[in-house]
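can u do me a favor
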């Protein structure tokens, strides 16, 4: 657990204060006493600072319109446009829609997105720093989000295994991701999208600037090959490490409530969505991506 946090810690801002409650062994913090729709710039700056102390941040009971959500995202960093722009909120290219809702005979967002353990934005040359999800409508059961602590997973490996992995690199591909999500997806990926998201190479183990702490950098989606390994051996290695990193002892399960804002670092976590009864329930979640500041390699 982060030594700077305690269960009753309060952060004072301009005469007001919000609480920080650690959870998931210190991987996450829940902020309490906040209304992001009316928060001052100073308050949002402090919220961004709180996020930098933990890999996962939760803020419940929020009611945000698209402009307010974008303002909050910008307090965390520069927003990234989504590659599949056909599923963004009209007029808001940085707000991606996750939903099973159908309006005028058309599905308004992506359904069943995020199944399988993965990390967002690994196909970008400067991988995404942060993902923000805002639960507008959430089912009363199912549709949980699971997050794995990749620093703890790396530290738990035997020392000789860590040394073996430290210098390995992985080829990541956006087209590979989409084609595996849907065998017919070749027609979905436009030529422009292919040009904007060429294949990239990232390290398998990320070294954090500053203190040098290491974490696994894994995904089951875009990983196409491990450089220097036969294709099948590389795929087997990725599967082996994901199985290790997603053991219950490394995982936080988030059960959604309407109004939840869940924020996580893509550099220190991996995540997956879980299914729900999409015939009985409707789901509407908005997603923001925060750009990374530099390439990992």
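np, heres the sequence
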């Amino acid at each position: 657990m982060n030594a700077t946090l305690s269960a009753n810690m309060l952060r004072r801002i301009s005469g007001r204060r919000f609480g920080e409650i650690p959870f998931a062994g210190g991987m996450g913090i829940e902020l309490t006493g906040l209304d992001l729709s009316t928060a001052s710039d100073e308050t949002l700056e402090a919220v961004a600072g709180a996020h930098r102390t933990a890999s996962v941040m939760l803020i419940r009971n929020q009611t945000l319109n698209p402009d307010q959500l974008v303002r909050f995202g910008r307090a965390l960093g520069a927003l990234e446009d989504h590659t599949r722009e056909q599923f963004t909120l009209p007029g808001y290219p940085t707000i991606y829609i996750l939903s099973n809702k159908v309006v005028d005979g058309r599905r308004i967002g992506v359904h069943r997105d995020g199944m399988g353990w993965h990390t967002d934005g690994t196909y970008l040359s400067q991988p995404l720093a942060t993902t923000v999800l805002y639960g507008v409508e959430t089912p009363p059961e199912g549709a949980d989000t699971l997050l794995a602590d990749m620093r703890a997973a790396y530290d738990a490996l035997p020392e000789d295994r860590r040394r073996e992995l430290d210098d390995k690199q992985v080829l990541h591909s956006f087209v590979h991701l989409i084609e595996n999500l849907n065998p017919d997806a070749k027609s979905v990926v436009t030529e422009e999208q292919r040009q904007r998201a060429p294949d990239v190479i990232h390290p398998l183990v990320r070294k954090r600037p500053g203190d040098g702490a290491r974490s696994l950098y894994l995904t089951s989606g875009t990983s196409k090959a491990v450089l220097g390994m036969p294709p099948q051996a590389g795929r087997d290695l990725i599967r082996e490490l994901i199985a290790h990193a997603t053991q219950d002892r490394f995982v936080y399960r988030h059960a959604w409530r309407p109004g939840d804002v869940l924020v996580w670092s893509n550099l220190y976590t991996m995540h997956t969505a879980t299914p729900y009864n999409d015939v009985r329930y409707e789901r509407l979640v908005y997603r923001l991506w925060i750009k990374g500041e530099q390439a990992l390699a």
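Confidence is low (pLDDT under 50) at residues 1-9. hope that helps!!
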